[in-house]
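Supplementary Methods S3. Input chains for the assembly prediction are listed below.
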Amino acid sequence: MKKTVQDIENIRTQTKLSMKNIRIMVCAGTGCTSSKSQKIINNISKILKEKNAEGISVEKTGCFGFCAKGPIVVIDPMEIFYEQVKPEDANEIVEATLNNKVVERLMAKENDKFVERWHELNFYNKQKRIALKNCGYINPENIDEYIAVDGYKALEKVLLEYSQDDVVKIISDSGLRGRGGAGFPTGKKWLFAKQVEGNIKYVCCNADEGDPGAFMDRSILEGDPHSVLEAMAIAGYTIGAKQGYIYIRAEYPIAVHRLKIAIKQAKDYGLLGKNILGTGFDFDIELRLGAGAFVCGEETALMNSIEGKRGEPNPRPPYPAVKGLFAKPTLLNNVETYANVPKIILNGSKWYSSIGTETSKGTKVFALGGNINNVGLVEVPMGVTLREIVEDIGGGIPGGRKFKAAQIGGPSGGCIPDSLIDTKIDYESLASINSMMGSGGLIVMDDSKCMVNLAKFFLEFTVDESCGKCPPCRIGTKRMLEILTRITEGNGKEGDVELLEELASSIKKASLCGLGQTAPNPILSTIRYFRDEYEAHIKYKKCPAGECKKLMNVHIDPEKCKQCGICKKTCPVNAISGEVRQGPFKINPEICIKCGACIEKCPFKAISK
Amino acid sequence: MIKFTIDSKEVEVSEGQTILDGARKAGIDIPTLCFLKEINEVGACRMCLVEVEGAKGLVTACVYPATEGMVVRTNTPEVLKARKTTLELILSNHNIKCLTCIRNNNCELQALAKKFGIKDIRFEGEKTESIYDESSKCITRDTSKCILCGKCVSICDKVQTVSAITRVKRGFDTYIGVAEDMEIAESTCVGCGQCVVNCPVAALKEKDAITEVIEAINDPKKHVVVQTAPSIRATIGEEFGMEIGTLVTGKMVSALKQAGFDKVFDTDFGADVTIMEEGTEFLERLNRGSVLPMITSCSSGWITFAEKFFPDVLNHLSTTKSPMSILGTLIKTKYAENTNIDPKDIYSVAIMPCSAKKAEIVRPELEVNGMQMIDAVLTTRETARLLKMLNIDLSKQKESDFDNPLGEATGAAHIFGVTGGVMEAALRTINKELTGNHIEDIAFKKLRGSKGIKEAKINIAGKEINIAVAQGLKNVRKLLEEIRDGKSKYQFIEVMTCPGGCIMGGGQPIRTAYEKATLDIPSLRAKALYKADEKATYRISCDNKSVKKLYKEFLGKPNSEKAHKLLHTHYNKQEVYVKEG
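Predicted structure tokens for the full assembly:
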């Protein structure tokens, strides 16, 4: 049933009230779902029914971000935080909740103390959740809950109170910049799309998140899909579009599912479709599923793909604002950018621009991964340092190892070495050290990681993901990968580093789209900060980090060997010869696969690489 | 108008034009490999990168719109380095066997490599897995030579609406191929060869028949005859360094005789017979009120197109065989009879502007007495290669005449080689012989020129009829869709598969993209044929004395039972994307 403004307000009030009851919030993001969180929900729900527990409900919710500790269950409104919950813990959780108690063994501990409320965790301490604000608080499959947390209020405000120019001004003044990677001022983008003449215009949402290990957009869509729908409707009103498309990867089934539910619910309420809230404004949204090509995150390739063509970029100009989807003026923003919009409208541009630095306003969501204790999703105000993210939020490096570098911006970005760990996370600071904000991939590496191998990893990715349209990217990335491969395998030649640099600089300049133009970045930045590692591989055939297997020489120190034979038993390929107490054991390098199992197993630390 | 500066030269272009347009106007050469105006404007090859003051990074001149006051530099060290590295990368994934390559010395990649002074390939590495596809009777694909410029895909898709090929796979593994990894023969390909004449390298070429022809020439038991299509005389000179549009009829005949062909006949004779048959057929259809519009059937690619895409309108096609097949049939019947040579001992070669003709000759529908009427088709390019192998320089030959009687032809037949020509030839004869109309000027200028669809109204025997001439299958498709929808206003349609007609056929000399952009090749070549027409003693097919004699002595009347048996054919639906076996 279509709702009036008053109806929506009533729903808001009612749902707010009902949300004050005790709610067992279970993370139903992709990560926790794969760790059986759905089973947890089912179990809790069954037990609640059996116990006839009135006033307590179990709700699925979006990602809490602390993925390292998943599956996560939070008891609201007390905000009791349970980590690494198993389906069989359901009974205990319900019992405790019914009796106003807590399950201590499932609670997080910091400095030997139980953390009472989830926001008190160090992990959340320095975060500021704007784009992720509702993730973990609401059931994303229930539009009423979104409305209860002031959802669709921004749309209502825009439609009833603001002109198109007002909205452009608010977004411009807020300082919001595109969160997809390049950081183009969002207000400017909206202004261009608004100014272009055209009866038919489109609003698109880029949900083709492709950086390896990054899941910012997925989490927003899984945890708070309506915020994106609302923002797109606002954008539609602002630029004069009636149709929106969300281009999302088919590999995000949960996000797709929730988006479908959200669109249907929004249409039922008349928050999408014809004559929204009785204002005469029409706006509809359709989903388009991508097949997972990384390049389809590039705007022109994305639009080609929506049109049913091969996902390949086009040269610009013409820019999408002038000639975009189906050759019509088109506004394209990414998920996270949109997720900020309703909050900016409601809280004002001044509020938003008060967060962050001089030129980079607001917050940025990062998918924190790699050699870091608190793997997960974090949202930080612009201007925090990398050190704060790694040490305070991320909880440092596991295994007592040292921080070596962080790769920011995924395959398009660059690495930040230990010496620059105090760099501020904002567009300009990152650019000044030849790195980039990117869309939010943040991978931390400890000192066991080889930087040549890191560059090779990202090049393998770009070689796989190049669309093949232009030769610098299609062939150039392949050639760079071949050079990196020979370096990591001990076949590097004198001059290879210079050759890489030359190729990289030409590929950056000559490639058609952002994919090729940024593909050399991991190579250039690792050469810049870790040139000696490249030289060691080439000149001395050594991998200083000990990661490149072909350069490893695993050997047993005969002086330390106590001739126990454990190594021989451990070796999976029978590369070790010798008899117990018959002299030191030996490794046949021809057979050895450098797996390192013997090194770990040797009780006398006699084996090294 | 937009004024901007390019390499310190002021240049003026109109709104919507690109940097490349401006550069060409200013006489500044910017290299391109993938650009084809209005057809392949994709900015893919990156050879035309230039620097624009204030723009982020380098931009592609081919598609970057010129703006007022912009400052462009086309040869800064940075630009040259980016282009050169890209070129080196392309070469590193190219099957570089230039000396034994069919496009040696006529290869745009080779020319650029020379221009950039590339001496060695610094980035040796793995090469993309390649496919050699010989499944088609018309064209051969060799992806090891392909540089993925995409011109073939765009031509096939946008100009011909055949869409037989596309980019397959991604990244380094990308190749141009057919859907579902099928072979080209199983696809919608009509064999027109427009992809071949637009390929900058040797990734696409005609199916070569030179070896078979040489073997036949050297076989003492074989009586080897050859016929040359109307357009060849206007184009083959180019292969010997002569200017575009040089008419070389007599030299061509001499060269072929020197090459060892026993007789050199003129397909134009077949064209004159075609007019007699087709013209009569049209008037019959018109008078009997049977299926109209009637569509001409000379162009082989078009026949395949109709059989693959429009099997429901095949009854609109004229049943008259093509001029080549008519002459081929007459050679192995009438000529064999006259000369007392067993047709089995005749080896009949046809020199055609066309790769699709290679498929036409093996159509079972065209057999007479279970015998294939033509044994081999050579394209203009193959013929030039054959002559060069035999050390025959066509440009240096003396003039000689075709062998008669199958060498006599009228001006009407000459213009079969250009779009509108068949219709013009038909109208001349229809007017004169069949309706007795007197006409002052026999030229139908309305039907000439480069427009995709040309139309005219004419009066035949008191009836006003609408005629259309379509060139390029995209335009043909439009007319066919009208027919399919019952909305066609025409009674008579000429179709040429290739834009421009046979002079621009898939078997014709290959010109560079730069030449195509800067010269009006179709009109230069067409001029030669129009000139041949003007010079001809007889310009109306029905005036061809040998043709008259043929009807009198052999066929009876046009569309007689015998003519039907020998010179008419039928068409059948062709299945596509069906894997054999």
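Residues 211-567 of chain B form a domain with the Rossmann fold fold (CATH 3.40.50.1780). The mean pLDDT of chain B is 94.
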